[in-house]
């Protein structure tokens, strides 16, 4: 199987232990790793209403956590010789992932299994691996 380009979709609850597995998989298949974190405004608004925090505070915190995870996996990938491309986007996760798969010619998507990600498993045009 040829996996030239793999996409790892990160969420704020992604266990960092999977980073090594993802990097090793990409190293084995000589894949370029695209790492994506999506800021979803509706999720941020929902958290703000539940916690009574300001939307801007929550957004900033989630964005910082996203960049922190992106940089952590990049460090590990660089150490293993895996080409990596980091992306932090705003929008609806399903649309952003679909755009990335089509625009970057992604061959495989990897993501944390959660209730919200079931749609990705069902509608993806490429193989999806649940972590």
Describe the protein's topology.
Blueprint: E1 5-10, H1 18-29, E2 32-39, H2 41-51, H3 55-79, E3 84-90, H4 93-103, E4 108-111, H5 118-123, E5 128-130
Parallel strand pairs: 1-2, 1-4, 2-3, 4-5
Helix pairs in contact: 1-3, 2-3
Question: What does the model show?
Answer:
With 131 residues, the chain is α/β, with parallel strands linked by helices. The chain has one domain (5-130): Rossmann fold (3-Layer(aba) Sandwich). Helix content is 50%, strand content 21%. It contains five helices and five strands, in the order E-H-E-H-H-E-H-E-H-E. It has helices spanning 18-29, 41-51, 55-79, 93-103, 118-123; strands at residues 5-10, 32-39, 84-90, 108-111, 128-130. A five-stranded parallel β-sheet has the order 3-2-1-4-5, with helices on both faces. Strand 1 (5-10), helix 1 and strand 2 (32-39) form a beta-alpha-beta unit. It is globular and about 45 Å long.
Overall CATH class: Alpha Beta
Structurally, the number of domains stands at 1
* Annotated CATH homologous superfamily: HUPs
Overall shape: globular
Might you state the CATH topology name? Answer: Rossmann fold
Q: How would a textbook summarize the main sheet?
A: 5 strands, parallel
| Spans where pLDDT lies below 50 across 5 or more residues | none
The structure class reads alpha/beta
Strand content: 15-25%
Rg computed from alpha carbons, rounded to a whole number of angstroms = 15 Å
The number of helical elements comes to 5
| CATH architecture assignment | 3-Layer(aba) Sandwich
Strand order of the largest sheet: 3-2-1-4-5
């Amino acid at each position: 199987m040829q996996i030239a380009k793999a996409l790892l979709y990160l969420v704020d609850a992604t266990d960092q232990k999977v980073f090594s597995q993802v990097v090793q998989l990409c190293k084995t298949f000589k894949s370029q790793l695209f790492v994506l974190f999506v800021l979803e405004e509706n999720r941020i608004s929902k958290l703000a209403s539940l916690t009574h925090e300001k939307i801007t505070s929550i957004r900033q915190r989630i964005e910082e956590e996203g960049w922190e995870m992106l940089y952590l996996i990049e460090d590990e990938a660089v150490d293993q010789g895996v080409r990596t491309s980091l992306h932090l986007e705003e929008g609806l996760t399903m649309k952003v992932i679909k755009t990335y798969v089509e625009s970057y010619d992604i061959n495989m998507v990897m993501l944390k299994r959660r209730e919200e990600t079931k749609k990705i498993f069902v509608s993806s045009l490429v193989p999806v691996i649940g972590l």
